[in-house]
Amino acid sequence: MTTSGASAPIRASDALLKKLAKIGLHSEADLLVHLPLRYEDETQITPVARSFAGEPVQVEVVVHGNEIQFRPRRQMIVRAADDSGEITLRFFSFYPNQQAMLSEGSRIRAFGEVRGGFFGAEMVHPRFRKIGDDEPLPSELTPVYPTTAGLANSALQKLIGKALAAGDLSETLPDDLRHRLKLPGLARSLHFLHRPPPGTDLDTLHARNHPAWRRVKFDEVLAQQLSLRRAYLARREQGAPVLRARDDLGARLLDSLPFGLTGAQARAMAEIGADLAQAYPMQRLLQGDVGAGKTIVAALAACQAISAGWQAAFMAPTEILAEQHYLKLKDWLEPLGVHVAWLSGSLKTKAKREQLAAMAAEAQLVIGTHALIQDGVDFAKLGLAIVDEQHRFGVAQRLALRKKGSNPHQLMMSATPIPRTLAMSYYADLDVTVLDELPPGRTPIKTRLVADNRREDVVGFVKKHVEEGRQAYWVCPLIEESEALQLQTAQDTYEQLSADLPALRIGLVHGRLKADEKQAVMAAFAAGEIDVLVATTVIEVGVDVPNASLMVIEHAERFGLSQLHQLRGRVGRGQYESSCVLIYAGPLGEIARQRLKIIFENTDGFEIARQDLQLRGPGEFVGARQSGVPLLRYADLEMDADLIDMAREVAEEMLTAHPDLAEKHLQRWLGSREELLKS
């Protein structure tokens, strides 16, 4: 058994190596931690007469009949029996060699679920093999591995068996640390999970709460924590511009605004301000619920960079959101003498050329969309990059913005609250600041659920609401399959509401409108010239109209929880009582029913996020930030939260006191994939 160095590559034919690569298996180490999905018990034989419907069992029988039938479809029917009774084996897909193996007189072992058939007990497509008269039974449970087309479970079993016999199973946790954590040894745990002995409780194995599973899950989480922590420490060794304010620009901005900072905003700014004054790059995530006031914090951070003699860039994922940030920040900062530039893909050639020239020279704050990271876009002196709704940008996009300057500080913002366990796990390489306090004046929002057969009642509610002097949003369903279809739905809704409410001024905004058209509609709505704004999800984030106090969302069951919460947060921004009406179409699936129940019962974004994580797992939640990063395969963020806490502490200790073991641990679990975590 080898004990050090890089893991040996798998030795197999080129065809087999290609199939293994499809499921991420390249080395012996990969095989060792490729663990079973489930187990089957082939260590015992069940007499046919004692096999019960619905139970997976293994029978040993002799074939006494084999025929091909063509009604109702082509199938092979095999009659077989042991001393206790008869059983039928039914195959709808089969090859000539299988038919030959199941010829009359053959003794076979078949494993599958028994069910009651027309002719008594039967198995459909059992796994089977031909055996001799006194062939011994396996001495271990049979592991069933995750696989891909053309890669048999038996082939994986053989390869993993070889890796267990000759691969590197040496410890990466120091003995004193392992005993302190009460974890079993790695070699023992992996042998047990790949080859469980007869009599092992299958429920404990499948529930993954056996001590051997706990060791594996801890090691997996530890690898993630080690990698992210190492990336965090490596960044701290890089140089970055020291952004210490040379004037009172930030104070003048605050003095000019009709509101003061909340305690949470003041704390956030103190943390960010201290980071910007360091000689290593800030990598901070600012998260807060809808309406918590992230924009003013970002503006104050930009002021610190500008007053230190550097530029700030502010990137948002959609043009409508980026443009709203531009108009708000321009309104705040230009009277204070700050030159604010705007860049988006829809700018005309001449205007774009002017903005690019300003960015490369005198512009102090540049706001835009993905256009900021395109080739040919140059900054004179970029010191701070702010990324709004950061989960909508991929790793490469955020890196591209950072590369526009000489290692600028980075502030990422998210209005999608991240559950604590997820933040500890997938965002361990970031410093996280939470705005856990809403500004005064935010009114509670009443949420109502309405079936779509009561749509007329909702139209009447909108009419009454507008007659009282308020405004309303009517958001059309998200149709993922087709942007054109979504646009048509918005158009149809606009026409229907215009017909139903002829006395009201109805507006329409969607993603296909040109930037100036979109802005004109939004400006008219903000000015009170539009009573009801029909929209697609372009208004999900950033829109702020205090007089709009009613949000209607059609086909709410098609939206994710974070989107519903974001849309609901567009109202309740003024002094008036606000409502959010969720129209749904039945019958509802179980997930949709649970989603609507959660949004109806909760207004706290962090609680909604926590329950959302339970519903759909971390994959979607983490979003494009982690594109390519291996999600946790075995550990569960909710069930194994204590392991994440443990792994965070151990990662720090191992990087300091046992760097060689830390490196080996990372090689075993991540190999070359570690690079994907460093962004």
Question: What this model shows, in words?
Answer:
Belongs to the helicase family. RecG subfamily. Its EC number is 5.6.2.4. InterPro entries: ATP-dep_DNA_helicase_RecG, DEAD/DEAH_box_helicase_dom, Helicase_ATP-bd, Helicase_C-like, NA-bd_OB-fold, P-loop_NTPase, RecG/Mfd, RecG_dom3_C. Residues 457-614 form the Helicase C-terminal domain. This protein is of the alpha/beta class. Among the domains are: 44-137, Nucleic acid-binding proteins (OB fold (Dihydrolipoamide Acetyltransferase, E2P), Beta Barrel); 249-435, P-loop containing nucleotide triphosphate hydrolases (Rossmann fold, 3-Layer(aba) Sandwich); 445-602, 3-Layer(aba) Sandwich (Rossmann fold). The chain has a seven-stranded parallel β-sheet with strand order 11-12-10-13-14-9-15, sandwiched between helices.
- Please count the beta strands (DSSP E, at least 2 residues each): 21
CATH fold label of the domain at 249-435: Rossmann fold
Mean pLDDT, as a whole number? 87
Radius of gyration over all CA atoms, rounded: 31 Å
Indicate the CATH architecture of the domain at 249-435. 3-Layer(aba) Sandwich
Topology summary:
Elements: H1 14-22, H2 28-32, E1 38-40, E2 56-69, E3 75-82, E4 85-91, H3 96-101, E5 107-117, E6 120-124, E7 127-130, E8 142-144, H4 153-166, H5 175-181, H6 186-194, H7 202-207, H8 211-236, H9 249-256, H10 263-276, E9 283-288, H11 294-307, E10 311-315, H12 319-333, E11 340-343, H13 349-359, E12 365-368, E13 382-387, H14 395-402, E14 409-414, H15 420-426, E15 431-435, E16 445-451, H16 455-467, E17 471-475, H17 483-500, E18 506-509, H18 515-526, E19 532-535, E20 548-553, H19 561-568, E21 578-584, H20 590-601, H21 605-616, H22 618-622, H23 641-657, H24 659-669
Helix pairs in contact: 6-8, 8-23, 8-24, 9-11, 10-11, 20-21, 23-24
